[in-house]
């Protein structure tokens, strides 16, 4: 058994305290026994008195605990005093030893760990809200936790690095996030963190280590098969391994960015639309320059470099690669050298190029590459790979056209999948659609909602998510149009500032951008984009029957049986008068 | 052979034998029941209890439970003794003595269970 089981703390304490306790008992027993045997002063008849067990225990109890009432029940004889002196020193040694052991134990790493695990498991057990299990509180984990907190979800965090756990405690989240410093790759840890809890809504594996993410994926697959698992994977063999046992969502930041790049080359508007819809809450998206067609230069042919080369070549743009290693792929135009130096860049033909991709694993080198290249050819389109969020200030200062931050890409993708499941099919449609359609849609939504990242949410017309609409439709009296539903429950019922993007209906193909006249049926799933107020007001309509009635008819219905009855009577009287 | 096991077995058996030594004799005759033997029984029982701390197995739990029962009974016997002699002042009458000895008899029973478990555990291990 390891010390990581939560019940073990008390046993650990008891086991450690065994020797000191026995020492204390022995000292106590020896002293008391001696006190009953040592001859005391003679009594009135001259007979030698001895302390009884009762008096010995009493005397020794107050002496050993340093209370020291004095010599009770009578002044001691010299022999007794000699013995008591010995006893006092013995008891001091006994206490010192016991207390020393206790304090040493309180400082002990194993013990502290056992206590922390127990406290964490208890916190998770007591959670009575839905939560996400986040493994790895690195740069991505921090972004995700922040976003989940803003969206009103709880998170339970497992992180291996103690400093990062400490950092989490310093963040001012609105809800308390239980965090444990442990290896997420161990199934026991995942179980303590509530993997099998019925409040767990999903597992997100974001550690820097692919094998840990893989371990989390397989643990989630076996222990909680129904739970969506989102796993970050940077190597293609990990991706293949995860896919082999059916991991629901595998996120590879490099491939993701490669797709973005391909989309930006193919349809800039669709790219911006995607960026705008999946942005982190509370951020603003800026419109980029569209990547130009022409000759490109790429520095650093690693896993990211490979993906980018593919994306560029798929758009039939010629790519020249600069790498320190000799050519691995003879099909490409290859310059062996250091991209940070002007020589290699000149050899790669930077002056005729339209764009440069700095894709090495080193942030400083990447910046050096683009700065040098920019001096040689100021019109270059720059794509920068940023490896660490900590270097943001430098990257912001350079103002590259695209910056690839793996942690942010993973965070965007996770949030999109977790919070709005309908977004994925819509984005798939956006990726496939032609540029004019995407441009028109982008113009429409950004002129209405601005470039700030909007609220994107999905609604299912069922008893759980829209009880008032569900009851209305169950009566089969009225036909409900989407446009009628999207009104604010305030005077004059203005249109809500939101727009339906997608309607999914069982058995039908997905309807993109359903219009106002679209009928809403039971079981429909809708994806909306808009502002936070619209989301709240629509929610009110969906949950409250009175609000729904007001939104549909403009009539304020009185609440409560008595008022309903009075209102019905008044209506009848009015009808009779007419 | 394992020194820890020797010490463990020693204290459990010793607690039972001391307890038995105090218990044996006419129940209401103070001369048959020595106070030092009761004292020794209490001390050895307490040590046996502490030795049983920290074992998470089912048998370990029963071991600890029997020892706690024996401690309780013996301490109660000692308290009755001290109360009768020092607080109440009735002295060691036949009635007081029989209640002390019967309490220690209860402890003896718990100690016997402890010894039985010890033997059963040993037989189960077969080595």
Q: Can you give a write-up of this model?
A:
- The complex is a heterodimer of chains A (578) and B (127).
- Chain A is an alpha/beta fold and 578 residues long.
- Chain A folds into four domains: 8-109, Orthogonal Bundle (Helix Hairpins); 128-251, 3-Layer(aba) Sandwich (Rossmann fold); 256-426, Rossmann fold, CATH 3.40.50; 454-578, Regulator of K+ conductance, C-terminal domain (Alpha-Beta Plaits, 2-Layer Sandwich).
- Chain A has 24 helices and 18 strands.
- In chain A, the strands form four sheets. Chain A has a six-stranded parallel beta sheet, with helices on both faces. Chain A has a six-stranded parallel beta sheet with strand order 9-8-7-10-11-12, sandwiched between helices.
- In chain A, strand 4 (200-205), helix 9 (210-223) and strand 5 (229-232) form a beta-alpha-beta unit.
- In chain A, helix 6 packs parallel to helix 17, helix 11 (253-266) runs parallel beside helix 13 and helix 11 crosses helix 17 (406-419).
- The termini of chain A are far apart.
- The longest helix of chain B has 32 residues, at 94-125.
- Chain B has helices at residues 3-23, 35-51, 58-87, 94-125.
- The mean pLDDT of chain B is 91.
- Chain B has one domain (3-125).
- With 127 residues, chain B is mainly α.
- Chain B has four helices and no strands.
- In chain B, helix 1 (3-23) runs antiparallel to helix 2, helix 2 packs antiparallel against helix 3 and helix 3 runs antiparallel to helix 4 (94-125).
- Chains A and B meet through helix 1, helix 2 and helix 3 of A and helix 2 and helix 3 of B.
- Number of strand elements of chain A: 18
Beta percentage of chain B is under 5%
What summary fits the major beta sheet of chain B?
A: none
Principal-axes shape call of chain B: elongated
Q: In CATH terms, what is the architecture of the largest domain in chain A? A: 3-Layer(aba) Sandwich
Give the helix/strand class of chain B. mainly alpha
The overall strand count of chain B is 0
Distance between the termini of chain B: 10 Å
Query: Roughly how many Å is the radius of gyration of chain A?
Result: 36 Å
Tally of distinct domains of chain B: 1
Query: Considering the protein shown, what is the CATH homologous superfamily of the largest domain in chain A?
Result: NAD(P)-binding Rossmann-like Domain
Query: What class would the helix/strand composition of chain A place it in?
Result: alpha/beta
């Amino acid at each position: 058994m390891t010390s990581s089981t939560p019940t073990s703390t008390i046993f650990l304490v008891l086991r450690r305290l065994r020797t000191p306790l026995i020492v204390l008992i022995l000292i106590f027993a020896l002293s008391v026994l001696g006190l009953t045997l040592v001859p005391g002063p003679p009594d009135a008849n001259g007979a030698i008195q001895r302390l009884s067990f009762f008096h010995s225990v009493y005397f020794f109890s107050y002496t050993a605990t340093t209370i020291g009432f004095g010599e009770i029940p009578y002044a001691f004889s010299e022999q007794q005093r000699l013995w008591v002196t010995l006893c006092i020193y013995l008891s001091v040694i006994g206490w010192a030893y016991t207390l020393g052991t206790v304090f040493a134990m309180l400082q002990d790493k194993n013990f502290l760990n056992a206590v922390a695990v127990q406290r964490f498991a208890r916190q998770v057990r007591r959670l009575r809200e839905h939560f996400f299990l986040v493994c790895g509180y690195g740069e991505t984990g921090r972004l995700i936790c922040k976003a989940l907190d803003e969206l009103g979800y709880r998170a339970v965090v497992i992180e291996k690095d103690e400093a990062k756990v400490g950092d989490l405690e310093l963040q001012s989240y609105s809800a308390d996030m239980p965090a444990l410093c442990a290896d997420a790759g161990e199934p026991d840890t995942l179980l303590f963190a509530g993997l099998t809890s019925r409040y767990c809504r999903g597992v997100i594996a974001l550690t820097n280590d692919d094998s840990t993410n893989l371990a989390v994926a397989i643990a989630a697959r076996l222990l909680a098969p129904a739970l969506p698992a989102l796993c970050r994977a940077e190597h293609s063999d990990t991706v293949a391994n995860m896919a082999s046992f059916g991991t629901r969502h595998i996120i590879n930041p490099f491939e993701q960015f490669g797709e973005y790049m391909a989309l930006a080359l193919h349809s800039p508007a669709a790219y911006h639309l995607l960026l705008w819809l999946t942005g982190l809450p509370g951020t603003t998206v800026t419109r980029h320059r569209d990547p130009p067609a022409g000759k490109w230069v790429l520095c650093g042919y690693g896993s990211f470099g490979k993906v980018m080369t593919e994306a560029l070549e798929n758009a039939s743009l010629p790519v020249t690669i600069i790498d320190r290693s000799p050519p691995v792929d003879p099909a490409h135009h290859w310059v062996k050298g250091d991209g940070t130096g002007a020589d290699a860049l000149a050899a790669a033909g930077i002056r005729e190029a339209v764009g440069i991709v700095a894709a090495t694993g080193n942030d400083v080198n990447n910046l050096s590459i683009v700065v040098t290249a920019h001096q040689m050819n100021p019109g270059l389109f720059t794509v920068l790979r940023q490896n660490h969020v900590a270097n943001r200030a430098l990257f912001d200062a350079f103002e590259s056209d695209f910056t690839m931050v793996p942690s942010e890409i993973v965070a965007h993708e996770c949030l999109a999948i977790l919070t709005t499941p309908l977004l994925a099919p819509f984005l798939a449609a956006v990726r496939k659609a032609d540029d004019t359609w995407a441009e028109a849609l982008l113009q429409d939504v950004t002129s209405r909602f601005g470039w700030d990242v909007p609220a994107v949410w999905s609604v299912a017309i069922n008893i759980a998510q829209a009880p008032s609409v569900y009851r209305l439709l169950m009566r089969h009296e009225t036909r409900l149009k989407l446009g009628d539903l999207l009104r604010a429950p305030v005077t004059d019922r203005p249109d809500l500032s939101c727009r339906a993007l997608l309607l999914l209906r069982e058995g039908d193909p997905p309807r993109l951008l359903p219009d106002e006249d679209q009928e809403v049926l039971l079981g429909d799933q809708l994806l909306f984009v808009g502002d936070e107020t619209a989301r709240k007001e629509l929610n009110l309509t969906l949950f409250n029957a009175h609000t729904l009635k007001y939104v549909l008819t403009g009539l304020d219905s009185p609440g409560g049986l008595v008022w309903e009855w009075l209102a019905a009577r008044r209506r009848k009287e009015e009808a009779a008068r007419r | 052979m394992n020194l820890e096991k020797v010490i463990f077995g020693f204290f459990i058996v010793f607690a039972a034998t001391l307890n038995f030594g105090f218990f044996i004799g006419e129940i209401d005759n103070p001369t048959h029941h020595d106070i030092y033997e009761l004292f020794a029984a209490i001390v050895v029982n307490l040590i046996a209890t502490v030795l049983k701390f920290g074992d998470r197995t089912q048998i370990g739990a029963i071991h600890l439970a029997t020892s706690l029962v024996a401690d309780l009974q013996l301490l109660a016997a000692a308290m009755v003794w001290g109360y009768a002699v020092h607080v109440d002042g009735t002295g060691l009458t036949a009635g007081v003595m029989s209640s002390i000895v019967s309490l220690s008899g209860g402890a003896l029973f718990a100690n016997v269970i402890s010894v039985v478990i010890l033997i059963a555990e040993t037989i189960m291990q077969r080595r």
